[in-house]
Amino acid sequence: MAAKPHAISYRSPKHLYPLELDPQIKTDTAKEPVSAQPPRKPHTSSKKVLLNYVSILCLLPLALADNETTYEETTRTPKVPDCTLDHCAPWAWECCSALQKTEIQYKCNFHEWYYTRDYIADTESVHRCDHTSSCYESTCEEVDLDDEIDEFSKSVRKAPSYSHCTRACGGLVCGCFFLTPACNFWRLYASPNLTYIYRVGQCPTWTPVVHLIVQQQNTTIPLTLSNGESYNHEGITFTLQSTSQPQLPILQLPLIINDDKAQAIMTAASTLGQPIVGSVGTMQCDEKSARNFRCTFPHEICNCIPSDFDTKCTCTYTNPMELWDLPEVRLPLSSGPVTINYLDKEITNNNPQSYYMQN
């Protein structure tokens, strides 16, 4: 048998506001008989004052004590014939309301850190004999990371990259006239792997939004309320006074959003200006630079071993697309009572736990 709907009742102005539910309300199905005689109505002016002070307090989620009254989220559509519903005082005359459906949703206040791309790290090496081209005197030892040496190809020079030089073999064995050490110019660079760009950030705060369907007598009222917002209907004011959000670690995880695919994942990622070896987000830039692939990445993610004619590097990083199809990070993502979703460029989490109503 379907449980009776949750009701809101309003008390005479002789009492304090808002009405506090008796923590000892019995929850069994046995009810005291209600007199068929309608209660005597108070003076009209008192009733008018009464209707202006109705408020709703939603606290979600709560680990409530046994002596508190909780209401579970429901999608039932109950009928409201009179004021004899659960927790609705029989002397509330015409002021009986019932919650048909409730949904509490939290919207992410997304804080964007940076943009990133999928990329491949590689090297280009050029051997030059001493006293030829760019290899003379102490130039090899003086090469800086951002030097655009002519020996490198144009595409490598324009890519996100770092220049290096190490001494190499000289003499006839290595194709040089002079026996003095030659130069091995090498450049660590990144090339785009895919065309997607990603936004990386976090939800430091979440804004609660409560969706209610309230039936009052023969009137159905759909409401959407945020903290501090009020809705007035025929002199009755509904107010979301406060909410509480569970402190779950998943709510603080970084988000990687692919706007082109209208999808997102939640996983550990490098923070702005602090790339972590092996993580997502080692390549960082603004939106324009990301589209033109003019980003930066730390050369420390690669361990390189140069030789006389070549340089081999082992690089440790994670591209977002490597994780994209993993169910443990792809949104919608559930953890305990919370489900996080990305829809229409908006990140939300829904919590179906019970909540505390006081009126």
Automatic annotation (TrEMBL):
InterPro entries: Phlebovirus_G2_fusion. It comes from the Eukaryota. Residues 99-354 form the Phlebovirus glycoprotein G2 fusion domain. This is Phlebovirus glycoprotein G2 fusion domain-containing protein.
